[in-house]
Structures
1.
Amino acid sequence: MRNKLLFGRSIDTGSWVHSVDPRAKLTGMVLYLIALLVVNSWVALGLATVFSLAYMVSTRIPLKYYAKAAKPLWVLMVFIFVVQSLSIKQGTVLWHIGSWELYSGGLSSGLIAALRMTLLVSFTAILTFTTTPGLLNQGLSGVLKPLRKVGISAERLTLMMGIALRFIPTILDETHKIMKAQAARGADMKELPWKEKGRLLVSLLVPVTVGAFRRAEELVLSMESRGYIVGAPRSEYHLLSWSKRDTGFILSYVMLVAIIVYLRFI
Amino acid sequence: MEGTKLAYDLQQVSFAYEPEHPVLSDVTLSITSGSWVSLVGANGSGKSTLAKLLGGLLAVNAGKIIVEGTPLLRETASLIMPRIGMVFQNPDNQFIGATVEEDIAFGLEGQCLPRVEMVSRVQQYAEKLGIQHLLSKHPSELSGGQKQRVAVAAILAMEPAIIIFDEASSMLDEQARGELLHILRDMRSNGDYTMVSITHDAEEIMASDRVIVLRDGTVAADVDPDTLFSDDALLNSCRLIAPYHIRLIQELERRGIKVPPFPNADKEVEGTLWPLLFNK
Amino acid sequence: MKPSIWKWSTRTVVTIGIGAALYGATSWIGIPIAPDTQLRPAIALLAIFGALFGPVVGFIAGFIGHVINDFIQSGTVWWGWALGSGITAAFMGLIYLSKDFNPKDGVIKKKHLISFIIYGVVGIFVSLAFSGLFDIYAMGEPNNKIVIQVISAGLVNLAVFLILGVPAVWAYAKRNRNNANLTVER
Amino acid sequence: MAITFQQVSFAYDAKNLWRHGALEDIDLKINEGEFVAIAGASGSGKSTLLQHLNGILMPTTGKVQVFDVIMSAGEKTPKLTELRRRVGLVFQFPEHQLFEDTVEKDLCFGPLNFGSSKVEAKEQASKALSMVGLDDSFLERNPFHLSGGQMRKVAIATVLAMDPDVIVLDEPTATLDPQSRAELAELLYRLRRDQGKTVIVVTHRMEEMLPYVDQWIVMQDGRKTFQGSAAELTREALKLEASGLALPSCISYWNQIATRFGLEMEEPCLTVEALAERLERVLQVHDTAEGGGG
Ligand SMILES: Nc1ncnc2c1ncn2[C@@H]1O[C@H](COP(=O)(O)OP(=O)(O)OP(=O)(O)O)[C@@H](O)[C@H]1O
Ligand SMILES: Nc1ncnc2c1ncn2[C@@H]1O[C@H](COP(=O)(O)OP(=O)(O)OP(=O)(O)O)[C@@H](O)[C@H]1O
Ligand SMILES: [Mg+2]
Ligand SMILES: [Mg+2]
């Protein structure tokens, strides 16, 4: 089951992108998100595509992994495409079925919307593919530091995020294992009629939930016995150090945003 | 006690998960600093429960636990617990980090060690337990024995004064168990550690200084390993079986062949059995 | 004893972390009924978090769980919907504040059940309205898509809450009533 | 032939960059009614191998046949319900096996699924529990509020309650006290002898299974490096030890004694009793020889 999870696992190819400070990567992703929200022309989209491809290639991770990352969202993309292309009535009429008319402007903005989505999803994969969860978390805690001023402790938040990230694969595995254990004793999800499946889903969710909370209990013991005390000072294993390259990395994003904004509002 | 410091002093400790089923009753014992104690007993005799009490993870219902001179109470727990490291019976649920490396580092971060020191400890203990090649793995990608080794490494790396092992070698292969035993022996001769080890493994028991036998929630015996393994009635009552070489000697003796006691350490029969077999 | 909702212990941190992981991991199980809208049994978990640990833990666990799940599945976070998950759990967690409600010791009464359902229904629709508006204003999503989503998701979540969530909390409490278990805590 | 593996390889995450080979090119035959034990260092692929036996994992390449069910890489998964009834698997961690809130419900889960009535299921549950040495007072307990050893026993009982033809156990003796281990080995042996069950066990303590096992399989780095009887295992001890497998005392003792007295061709005496008896005879011969000589 975990096999299907592409995100949340890093692929170490040792490229330079891997060694960029996670805080820089996080900031870069936010900038990229902004850039994409502003994109509305083919030129700008082309620019963003080239930009994305350049980064994807420099991670030295096969492009098909990025494609896979976007796959789960294809339904959504089709939907966005259909809604956009049917609701915008500009340009010439290309096609009509009954009262529905497809305009060229609609088609193009529908395509742009769908492509934008694809780019967004596959590009953000760079972050997770090139950063281990620990580093990502550390980066997050760095980015969130200012929150302390409003009374939210970034360490606590990142520890919670860390636990959550670390346990998702485990809980998926556990779910799988309980399914196996039940299957091994004659209740096989795959081979049952629908109504039975529903019953089994409940008899699956309950032990998964109970099991997760039992895990929580044991994890508390384990953390306490390793000297964890809420709010006590801790040192950091992953030391983040900002270098010129990280600044450059962010600057490239700033430029992308600037150009795209310029293209939109001239 | 004159001269020797006590790591643990338990006075009439009782505990129950549910009031109607007492698990430990009136346990009184003390453990000197720097010693290696084996805690043995049948399944369900209360070993893990006692270990959790010793580690400050459960609170006694009655009695007192004094750790290195300080009573273990809610208020003092935060001072005492950092001195105690504990490896649990089930290695599966004690992972905190998302990778083996981060997991070993978790305890070190809590000790506020500088980064250089953490990195060197992680490497050092990963090497000691032969898990360097697993450092970047997620816990759910490990086999049972690998999990157990990581759990041990994570605790040893913290170098706590008191270490409690709850069946830390139960899923290790013969080879790895030998290696772990070797590590424990080293730590023992180093003298800086107090070790309490729950185990069913005869070799491990033989290597320790002292054996505390639990039966039905009370201390049934408190002896040295040799005495334990020569006392059949005691062994039986706590469902233990003596190591192979001791049973062999006993069996030979039953048949009227006298054998001097011989060490098991390197499984060498030669030094002891041959003279017997030839020089009669 | 019910711990106060503001007291932070190792247990709180871990509960939120694992709760979020659980919500995130099980959000994955679902039957799509409209784009971006699924029949997700995980909604029932929000009810459980809320009832057992209170609105604060519920909110954070729901929020983080949703963020992480979005992130893992698609790399993009739908912030509005993530906050929505948090809000839903927080509303359902209001029941935790009524003094004599204590499912861990098996104490749950009819009146609790009724207010629990009311909190849940309100929570579901408040959060959906919130997420919908958030999407329209902040993310610039097309309006008509949002309307379909809000209505269908509301009804679906409501059904899951009533069919799975409420009985789960009830069953949990009942189970604990039988073996009034003394939880050992230091 | 109950079980055959033909050139089976398995990799976790086979289709990804995270691919991790765990089994390589395994050929294996296990007859019906045999008692088979599997040994090997940790991480050598034992648990992975076992999970192929009831179709929890499917081979990445090669073919696994269990009774008449064929699981072959790249082909459609066959219907497994019947296979799972006939092959009962006890996982390495008992926590993975149990999921209900009372021991009784957990024990009855299998029998109920396979069509027993409530009454029958309860009967089977309490019978299985007594087989592993626990009394009926455990029926009402929460399986997760048991000691490590008790939980392990309950996990084993859940599989015994289903009365499978093939019983597969992954390190069932870890965390059991030594006498419970001996009892379990004995129980498995009786099931094999009296009911003709096929028993397959992974163990790190080879000694406790030695007297009962028909065939040993040794795994190393995902490969099968040995398959044969205890006597053959004893004879190949040096080779196996050279490749990193530590063997129990009883084997090294026998080998030393055998070399010393030239008993290599004999059936090895691996239990304390057998060895003592054999030594006694050696001594007698030796004494009379010496007596005669001097
Ligand atoms: N969480 C719990 N709730 C209630 N009873 C428990 C719980 N954990 C253990 N027990 C009971 O307490 C007794 C002692 O358990 P403990 O785990 O200390 O045994 P143990 O000596 O470690 O045994 P093992 O060798 O099997 O690990 C057992 O009878 C067990 O059933
Ligand atoms: N879910 C998994 N994902 C990826 N790799 C795994 C997974 N489970 C096991 N492995 C790896 O596959 C190899 C074989 O594991 P397996 O669990 O079969 O070993 P084992 O022989 O049972 O060891 P042990 O005696 O320690 O239980 C190991 O190197 C392990 O790290
Ligand atoms: Mg125990
Ligand atoms: Mg294994």
2.
Amino acid sequence: MSRLPSDTPLKWGLRIIAAIAGTIVLLIVLFLVIEAIPALQTVGLKRFFTDPSWHPAGGTEAGTFNLIPMLVGTILVTAGAILIAAPLGIASALFCQYYAPLRLGKLYRHLIELLAGIPSVVYGFWGLVVLAPLIRQWQPPGQSLLTAILILALMILPTVMLLSESTLRSVSHSYIQAANALGLSRWAIIQSVVLPTARGGIITAVLLGAGRAVGETMAVLMVAGNVVQMPDNLFAPVRTITANIALELGYAMDHHRSALFVTGLMLMAIIVMLVGFAHWINKGHVYD
Amino acid sequence: MTNWTNRIATVLMWFTALLVTSVFLWIITDLLRQGITHLSWEFLVTAPSDAGRSGGIGPILISTLLILGVCLLTSVPIGVPTAILLAEFSRKGHWFGRLIRSSLDVLAGVPSIVFGLFGNAFFCFYLGMGFSILSGGLTLSCMVLPLLIRSTEEGLRSVPDDYRQAATALGLSDAATLWRIILPAATPGLIVGLILSISRALAETAALLFTSGYADRMPQSLMDSGRSLSIHIYDLAMNVPGGEAQAYATAMVLIALLLIINVATSWASTRWLHGRISL
Amino acid sequence: MSKKMTYIALLQLTIISISMILSGCDKHENAKASEIPQLQGKLILTGSSTVAPLANEIAKRFEAQHPGVRIDVQTGGSSRGIADSRRGTADIGMASRALKSSESDLTAHTIAMDGVGMILHQDNPIKSLTDKQILDIYTGKITHWSKLGGTDNPITVINKAEGRATLEVFLHYFKIKNENIKPSIIIGENQQAIRTVAGDPNAIGYVSIGTADYEASHGIPIRLLPINGIKATVANVRKGVFPMSRPLNLVTHGKISPLAAAFIAFASSSQINDLVEAQYFVPIAQ
Amino acid sequence: MTTSPLITQTIRPWANREPCCKTQLPHITTTNLSVSYNGKLAIDHVNLPINRGCITTIIGPSGCGKSTFLSCLNRMTDLATHCKVSGSIAFNDTDITNPKINLIALRRQIGMNFQRPNPPPLSIQKNLTFPLKQHGIKRKADRVAKAQTILRRVGLWDEVKDRLQTPALRLSGGQQQRLCIARALVLSPEVLLLDEPCSALDPIASGVVEDLITSLRGQYTVVVVTHNLAQARRIADNVAMFWMLGQAGTIIEHSPVAPMFESPQNEITAAYLRGERG
């Protein structure tokens, strides 16, 4: 696009505002680091991985700062949710595009869009009052890894489904026509033409779903039970890094507060890695 | 043999759709059935009492709208110019545009609780705004910025180059081209961005817990703490024994609000845009 | 008719809030405009979720007496109350425990007393537990109610998250470390323990007696257990015989404003005894 | 309908070879074939015998139903919504318009290729092996061997043998089109339907593809839709002329290539071939 040089004040104004928008990330990292420094200095990064447990309120010396159980909690909850939501989400997208009659497909899409709009706190609330008691009847205490996985899976399913579906829609119709002309069955076409073609987009959809699962706070906080421990089965309660921040920040002081900012930095690191990975796969831009 | 796999796949697809639909219908009917009984005009306008077990959500609605207002009033003036710069004034591959884009990509992925941490440290303490509607709104504003910029940018990019060439041929300046031709044509993108931002801001809880605070009273100024609808649901669900009924009703209000904003804005945009595009 | 009233109220509130946005957010403007010089302005109280409801009621009465004053009460736990008052983020902190030796820079103003009691679900057949039994439950030595003569169900042990005063009172009384507790669920706010116990017949938790009493009397299916043979009642806390009890304090740091001083004086006076009792706490002012 | 060897010789320099389709047995015969989309007639009462082992070209102006006719022959019309087919198509004495027919088996026997080369973004080899895999050839070595045979058959082998694992989309247009023809041939069909196979290619590439098509004579029954009259004349054994009569397209004349180009019976055909109508 050719631009005239005559409107430089306009351009400079825009540039300054854009720079402000671009600086917000830096500002976030800066303030996370500033708040995290006291803990990093007095406690040291090493103790976040080697201490026997997480009891940071005891003071820098007496307190313990082991993050690993919460890191594992985050990973398990995310992995579990992806394991459920990815197949269901991708299958839902395929259903919409290739199996459902036109009207039904549209209806189904609208339903999923509606669900994508339900706030996480509502999912958490529903999990707390409906799902957790059901699971408690089966295996107490009900607020558990499994409950968190199920609720998170429900929450990220729309993300995975809607993003996958838009990728599927961009699969060239001519490929499908050609595959049809080769006498391939519907599933064979999906398997050998559609999925390989849409692979990048589908992986991005799953990664964005994973990003959402890692960052999700409220729903997990409400249903996971929040005990800091390595869960030994699906019915054991867990605490994730995000839930930990939400649970303790309001009550935390000094080094405890600072330690929570260290965990926030770690979350940032995980997300940057996921976004980078999605970028690398898609070589495009990743937004919601 | 292949026929057999094909048939299994078909069955599985329909089964998945049925499963997903029934689980979600379960949630929605549950929310509807439990929520609708408590819903009334009274509920919408009166203040909560007895920790929210009785009374309504009047002040909470006002706080929510104020937080939303602060969020939009700050994010739009930053977001739209940034989108204009990215779409109209930055050559492809230029370092400045690339840098800002990657920074926004990361910002889009930042978990809401990290926004909460940041807002708490920066707005509440460093800038001394305390737990207030202002802090909460500004925090949300940072959060919705990437969404807003992205869809506005998409909107700008979808304006055909012919328009720009025609404008240049007419001897319009950049600013005039932008104002008269490109911005009106790009409004659908901007509106989509606004809807997405409002939806995300309305639904947000974690970022507000430690920025806008908990107070369920009617706010007197933007420096007062205000409780958003989502935090009210959280509080009723977690901390108030016997608060479910009210939580259900509040959830209904929140979801209805999200739906109304979606429908109304898209309706208004098509109507209004018809008038603008036929310049 | 009441509908109309509420409608008008809503309209007014909308107008107020819009005008607030338009006029900026200078909270001192009102104060300057007013003619009465005494007791104007705003107080921020943060801290213990146990004290907060009481402080809120006291604040409402204080505001009613002094129209120019606005008091914001925020919960966030005793630790935050102490931190905020020290940092100056809050004018007055709220703490539901006595100050520690490391907190000698602060001044505590006790406004009431409270006890921490163990709660079970109403349907739980257990009528009492010894201190040893409670300790064993919390340290994971007893995991089934059947061991204690109850139903054959696993015990859901509810513990509080780090930084809560109730946790500190509990740990202090039973002389255990938080590391040694084997919880099934960790909860944050005070009320959440009641909510969780009310929803799970096999749960055990500890909460403020005042709150538990209030909820139980409002039909929430929970029951308070005696501690060491002493019934967990407000009366016993008042007599000073209930072992797990604590003061509810307003905490200040350094020199305080006349407004804060006036509020503390008001909160420590007998003028608020009815409010304390309404919240099922124990008044101390004579 | 007999082909005069003499005339064929003058038109086709390679025809000193024995003509491969002298049998003149119809492989596919359409009878009163009509197709309508959304109730609007696209082709009307088309009757055409397509001879076994011959190359039949279908000519005519745009929009007169040539491609629609072609896609009827392997029931690609089923993919379009609101498409209704009537009449019959006899293929090896089976009426393939029967809804109960096994479409997968049918399309395996009647392959089809399109105007634009459309290899999915897979590797060159994968493009040929995936149809085989889906049609039940389990051993990978068998699939690869078959793919290589076909690549040799379409003359691509020397061009791509060193980069079988590279994306097919990196090939040139002509190479892609030959790959697509190879993909159709890999399933060993009896009939090959080609919808304007050269229209998206430059003259040199289209010459190569033409040579490939003529080399299929005798081994496969080939139906080619083309706009290019010179091309039709170069490659065809039989020619069918489509024209719009009223609202719908139909065949106004069909005959072996020589009489068609030298002494068309229908005046419209004559005018079209002279370039006066079209």
